[in-house]
Amino acid sequence: TAGAGFEELETEGAIANLGEAHFLKSHLKANIIAWMDSEIPERWPSIGVIAPYRKQVSLLKEILAEDEELKAHADLIKVQTIDSFQGQERDVIYISLTRSNTEQHIGFLSDVRRMNVAMTRARKKLIVIGDSATIGTHPFYREFINYAEAIGHYHSVWEWDISSI
Questions:
Q1: Is residue 162 part of a domain?
Q2: Contact indicator for 33, 70 with CB cutoff of 8 Å
Q3: What is the pTM of this model?
């Protein structure tokens, strides 16, 4: 999401990113529509949406619950913190990294063991949403971004229509 203006907000020590949450909702909704059109209902994927910050999880739950189409598939979607999701798996995992700031502060994300927990929850598909300019200064995330680019799976937020976000 680098350059999209999806800056994190901190209130009373709680961190959330409204723009990133809305982008995740749009991305998830587009995927769900595609899956529903092409899959047999019994084979629809289970979906986990996880974030390192409780405030972001709360915001994601609120935003997803406001959408009528997503509400119809709420039984497929579980939204939790990374720590709360430990030991669980889903077919598809969305990770909202949340952090986006000019100082490149990444907070909890610097504990790469948490990211190991988050990334290994996906059975079939992993979608990581974050600000590469903020997280890319950390060696782990820089290598992760380089890997995603090398295999052709890095995408910029600018490849999507974000005008309504």
A1: no
A2: no
A3: 0.93
Residue 4 maps to a domain:
no
Tell me the torsion sign for CA atoms 150, 32, 156, 100.
negative
- Residues facing residue 94 across a β-bridge: 49, 127
The residue ranking higher by pLDDT, 88 or 69, is: 88
Q: How many helices (H) and strands (E) does the chain have?
A: 7, 6
Phi-psi region of 13 (alpha: psi -120 to 50; beta: other; left: phi over 0): left
**Quick check: helix, strand or coil at residue 79?**
strand
Q: List phi, psi (to 5°) of 163.
A: -65, -30
CATH number, domain of 25, equals: 3.40.50.300
Q: Where are the alpha helices (H) located in the chain, listed in sequence order?
A: 18-38, 54-66, 68-71, 82-85, 112-119, 132-135, 139-150
Mean pLDDT of 25-40: 83
- Reduced to 3 states, what is the DSSP secondary structure of residue 58? helix
